[in-house]
From TrEMBL:
Lineage of origin: Bacteria, Pseudomonadati, Pseudomonadota, Gammaproteobacteria, Lysobacterales
Taxonomic source organism: Dyella dinghuensis
Ranges annotated as spanning the membrane: 16-36, 42-61, 73-93, 132-154, 160-179
UniProt-recorded name of the protein: CDP-diacylglycerol--glycerol-3-phosphate 3-phosphatidyltransferase
Enzyme class: transferase
Family indicated by similarity: Belongs to the CDP-alcohol phosphatidyltransferase class-I family.
Family matches, as PANTHER family: CDP-DIACYLGLYCEROL--GLYCEROL-3-PHOSPHATE 3-PHOSPHATIDYLTRANSFERASE 1, CHLOROPLASTIC (PTHR14269:SF62), CDP-DIACYLGLYCEROL--GLYCEROL-3-PHOSPHATE 3-PHOSPHATIDYLTRANSFERASE-RELATED (PTHR14269)
Length: 192
């Protein structure tokens, strides 16, 4: 006997979180263009919209039971595309330190490489970001918003403390991913 799916998953709105994640992917190109042209106020507006939408799609998916494997992957791809692009462009323009950009990129490369290895060696992967990872993504967005506010000459908190918080969270959450997913891989390989 097949169990009935929950009513929430039958809602015509169930794909809304995925659509919001796709919107974030689409926003990456105009954000990059605006950053390269030093349109700081417009960049700030688009990054703020992308940051808020990241929270909204996650809330909708969890609250209404609209979570899916595709949604988890779209959310992760949207976050990585947006954040890595912003950090690389701002570092290239001399607005954020290269060492911080390399830490952000190295963490995301580590996570993406781990996902590819998992897929090749074990099977399908179901994205499960930890609270530490969510905090890291959130602080990266906060840091970028502070940097862009200052560049747009808006009153902004100093990004200096956020810079170090982002660096620390990237390192710690990257190590957390390695430990947690290595343990899961070991269990999966020895369970079969």
């Amino acid at each position: 006997m097949v169990a009935a799916m929950p009513a929430a998953s039958q809602s015509p709105w169930r794909h809304l979180p995925n659509a919001i994640s796709m919107l974030r992917v689409v926003l990456v190109a105009p954000i990059c263009w605006l950053l390269l042209h030093r349109s700081w106020s417009s960049s700030l507006a688009f990054v703020a919209v992308a940051g808020v939408s990241d929270g909204v799609d996650g809330f909708l998916a969890r609250h209404y039971g609209w979570q899916s494997r595709l949604g988890g992957m779209l959310d992760a791809i949207a976050d990585k595309l947006l954040l890595v692009s912003c950090f690389v462009i701002l570092a290239w323009l001399g607005e954020v330190p290269w060492w911080l950009t390399l830490i952000v990129c190295a963490r995301d490369l580590l996570i993406a490489s781990g996902a590819v290895l998992w897929r090749l060696l074990i099977g399908r992967i179901y994205p499960q970001p930890s609270l530490l990872s969510k905090a890291c993504t959130f602080m990266q967005i906060v840091y970028l918003v502070c940097v862009l506010m200052a560049l747009a000459r808006w009153p902004a908190p100093s990004s200096y403390a956020f810079m170090w918080l982002v660096a620390g969270l990237c390192v710690v959450s990257g190590l957390d991913y390695v430990v947690r997913w290595s343990h899961r891989a070991w269990q999966a390989r020895h369970a079969s």
